[in-house]
Automatic annotation (TrEMBL):
UniProt protein name: Exocyst complex component SEC10b-like isoform X1
GO biological process, one term: exocytosis
Pfam families: Sec10_HB, Sec10_N
Organism lineage string: Eukaryota, Viridiplantae, Streptophyta, Embryophyta, Tracheophyta
Native source organism of the sequence: Durio zibethinus (Durian)
Residue span(s) of domain Exocyst complex component Sec10 N-terminal: 89-205
Keywords: Coiled coil, Exocytosis, Transport
GO cellular component, one term: exocyst
UniProt-listed InterPro entries: Sec10-like, Sec10_HB, Sec10_N
Keyword Coiled coil: yes
């Protein structure tokens, strides 16, 4: 908006608004400000001046310093004389003019917009028309391009067909030319049998050997195919066939001569290490039977296959000098050195083969196969001589075990050789399969040899133990029968070290099973058969040991029975019998201890076998269904025989202990022990001498049982022994008569016995001896108090009835009639 000069009559001036004021970033506040800024500043100045005048002249100052405001009348008078907003009329006039100009501007803009719309509509119509014409032109252009592309494609196909025809014609011309040339050469070979002197220079020129070989092979193939297709019934074709047969014979002769000439040249170049010449000859020879003759000839002429000294050196390196016994460790070292040498040699040959032959993999396959089938096989045949199972070699010469160890070493080292050869390169040859085939004859009968070896080792060990036993017997001299029966020497006892040796043999055999058996089923079968051998060996060994210990118990029992005498013998005979009985008792105690040691070692041996099964055998059987369970069942069956022998022996131990207890009681128990005279002296509260001797004997002899037995076996044995001791004491006391002081002495004995059997940890036995203590009261109480003893314990009435009859006053006190009512009520 254009500015106007400032005047008092602003409303009379014309207001001019420009359209440009509304372009760009339009702001109504800016437009409004431009309209009123010419009027409002003067109003503000006047208002400021008015405010200053009122502040000085319009207020009164009081004497106390306060200003007094003017009165309302004064204010009203001032308002009439000066208007509050004097510029309002000018603003109204300005606003009206502005509105008029704005309306005019809108009309101008509307007119311009209308004109622009018309112009745009006209241009749009022209544009649409132009686009329609362009689309028609483009469609026509596309049609032209399609026709052109179709024409170009047709021309291209025609040109390709012409090119194919030209190429086919050229190929036919070339083939015809070659055929004519071949027919010419074929006629030369068809001239006369065996005549190769009149051939073209091509077939005798050494510089064109490759070309001659190629043509000779083509002629030979053509002639052989023609002969195969010929029908002899036609005379002409028969004549032709005979003619071609001459050509075939001449060609065969020429090819053989050429091949020999190339092989000779190849050998000469090989001697001089001329790899380029060797490669050239090998390439030409590859046209004859795919180069098989060249490959085989090269491999066969290697020094390690034709030098006899190499074979002898191999044997000396592995087996040592003739006449010496080779050990598996020495053989392992020898095989490692030999196989390393073979691998290095093959590696060197591989470098030459890669540089010379067009098909190096085929040559490497032949070379590796020849190494395994000739050099390795020759060595293994000397190293592994399969022994007879009927007449196996003696243990002094190593036995079957030496053969098996040699087989394992050779197999493992040869497998390593196969892996090394595979790393070097062996073409398409199945080197692992070839290696397996070298040992197939040995592996087929391996399980039988392994089981036979374990049996041979077991028998040799038993013979060794018997020899040691015989040697100890001879060195110790002859021992009296009475003493000899009680001696259980260490060589007769079960040895845990021997069982451990059995397990060690088996572990070694299992390692060989794992080495030779690649399939889980085969491995499980072999492991099961080998482990079954161990079960049989351990079962037989510990059973025999237990039976020997039982024989000692049986002999001791025979000694006891031999010296049982009647009552009417002389004093000298009785003394001799007593001495013999003491010796028999010592033999029984020694046999008892020996059997307990055998039982303990038997348990340790079984534990070793079970641990070995859990750690080493079970994991090899689990992959095959039922194998693990079957072996567990076999193990239980094998050990059942030993368990039966142990059970019988423990029963004999109880019999031995009870026999000695009865002997001690009979020898030491006096009638006065339980029927002491009534001499006014204080009763003896000590246990009887017989009781002391019996308890001392049991404490001494059962130490071996407490050490040897464990768990349920120990509990069952001590419970049975406690019951037998209880029964034996009851029977023993039936032989004596008791007075009250004797009853106290008996009760003291029962207490001593009860304290001892408490160490058995058998509640049922403890209860029986507690009842014995109550039962002893029948000898102590007065006759009239007997009936009260059974009120709390009616279970002892039957035994009490027998015991009461042993009272000294049984008849004098007429206890039978007095207690008859009690017995009748209890029955």
């Amino acid at each position: 908006m254009k500015e106007r000069s400032k005047s008092s009559s602003v409303s009379n001036l014309p207001l001019i608004l420009d359209i440009d004021d509304f372009k760009g970033e339009f702001s109504f506040d800016a437009l409004f400000g431009n309209l009123v800024n010419e009027l409002l500043p003067s109003f503000q100045e006047e208002e400021a001046d008015s405010a200053d005048g009122h502040g000085i002249g319009g207020t009164d100052v009081l004497p106390n310093g306060h200003v007094r405001a003017p009165s309302d009348a004064t204010k009203f008078a001032q308002g009439l004389s000066a208007p509050l907003f004097p510029e309002v009329d000018a603003l109204l006039s300005l606003f009206k003019d502005s509105c008029k100009e704005l309306v005019d501007l809108r009309k101008q803009i509307d007119g311009r917009l209308y004109n622009l719309k018309e112009e745009v509509s006209t241009q749009d119509a022209k544009h649409r028309k132009t686009l329609t014409e362009l689309e028609k032109g483009v469609d026509g252009l596309f049609d032209s391009f399609a026709r052109l592309d179709s024409r170009i494609s047709s021309v291209g196909q025609t040109a390709a067909k012409i090119g194919d025809h030209l190429q086919s014609a050229d190929a036919q011309r070339e083939t015809a030319s070659q055929t004519i040339e071949l027919i010419k050469y074929l006629m030369e070979f068809n001239s006369s049998p065996g005549d190769l002197m009149e051939l073209s220079p091509l077939f005798s020129d050494d510089s064109r050997v490759a070309e001659a070989a190629s043509i000779a092979q083509k002629l030979r193939s053509f002639a052989e195919e023609d002969i195969a297709r010929a029908v002899p019934s036609v005379v002409g074709s028969a004549t032709a066939s005979r003619g071609l047969e001459v050509a075939v014979a001449n060609l065969q002769e020429y090819c053989n001569e050429l091949e020999n000439r190339l092989l000779a040249r190849f050998d000469a170049a090989s001697q001089r290490r001329e790899l380029s010449t060797m490669s050239e000859c090998a390439k030409i020879l590859s046209q004859f039977n795919r180069g098989t003759s060249a490959m085989q000839h090269y491999v066969a002429t290697r020094p390690m296959f034709i030098d006899v000294e190499v074979m002898n050196s191999d044997t000396r390196l592995v087996l040592g000098n003739q006449g010496s016994q080779a050990s598996p460790s020495n053989v392992a070292r020898g095989l490692s050195s030999l196989y390393k040498e073979i691998t290095d040699t093959v590696r060197k040959e591989a470098a030459t083969i890669m540089a010379v032959f067009p098909s190096p993999n085929d040559v490497m396959s032949i070379l590796v196969q020849r190494v395994l089938e000739q050099r390795v096989t020759a060595l293994l045949d000397k190293l592994l001589v399969k022994p007879s199972l009927v007449n196996p070699p003696p243990m002094e010469e190593g036995g079957l075990l030496l053969y098996l160890r040699m087989l394992a070493v050779a197999y493992e080292k040869t497998q390593e050789l196969a892996r090394d050869l595979r790393a070097v390169g062996c073409g398409d040859s199945d080197v692992e399969g070839l290696t397996e085939s070298l040992f197939s004859a040995h592996k087929d009968e391996y399980p039988e040899h392994e089981q036979a070896s374990l049996g041979q080792l077991y028998q040799a060990k038993l013979e060794e133990l018997r020899a040691e036993s015989q040697k100890v017997s001879e060195s110790s001299g002859t021992i009296g029968r009475s003493k000899g029966a009680s001696v259980a020497s260490s060589y007769q006892q079960i040895s845990v070290a021997v069982v451990t040796e059995f397990v060690r043999w088996n572990e070694e055999a299992i390692s060989r099973c794992t080495l030779f058996s690649s399939q889980p089923a085969t491995l499980a079968a072999n492991v099961k058969s080998v482990f079954t051998c161990l079960l049989g060996q351990v079962s037989q060994y510990i059973t025999d040991g237990l039976e020997r210990a039982r024989d000692s118990l049986t002999e001791a029992a025979g000694l006891r029975e031999r010296f049982v005498l009647g009552t009417s013998v002389s004093r000298r005979v009785a003394a001799a019998a007593a001495s013999a009985a003491e010796a028999a008792a010592a033999a029984g105690e020694s046999s008892f201890r020996s059997f307990m040691v055998a039982v303990q070692r038997c348990g340790s041996s079984v534990a070793i076998v079970q641990q070995y099964f859990a750690n080493s055998i079970s994991r090899l059987l689990l992959p095959v269904d039922g194998a693990h369970a079957a072996s567990c069942e076999e193990m239980a069956t094998a050990m059942s025989t030993a368990e039966g022998a142990a059970y019988k022996g423990l029963q004999q131990c109880i019999e031995t202990v009870m026999a000695e207890v009865e002997r001690l009681l009979s020898a030491e128990q006096k009638a006065t022990d339980y029927r002491s005279p009534d001499d006014g002296m204080a009763p003896d509260h000590r246990p009887t001498n017989a009781c002391t001797r019996v308890v001392a004997y049991l404490s001494r002899v059962l130490e071996a049982a407490f050490t040897a037995l464990e768990g349920l076996n120990k509990q069952a044995f001590l419970t049975e022994l406690g019951n037998r001791l209880h029964k034996g004491l009851l029977n023993h006391w039936q032989k004596f008569t008791f007075n009250p002081s004797g009853g106290l002495r008996l009760k003291r004995d029962i207490t001593e016995y009860g304290e001892f059997v408490r160490s058995f940890n058998a509640p049922s036995v403890d209860e029986k001896f507690e009842l014995l203590g109550i039962l002893a009261n029948v000898f102590i109480v007065a006759p009239e108090s007997l009936s009260t003893l059974f009120e709390g314990t009616p279970s002892i009435r039957k035994d009490a009835q027998r015991f009461i009859q042993l009272r000294e006053d049984y008849k004098s006190a007429k206890l039978a009639s007095r207690l008859s009512s009690l017995w009748s009520s209890s029955s």
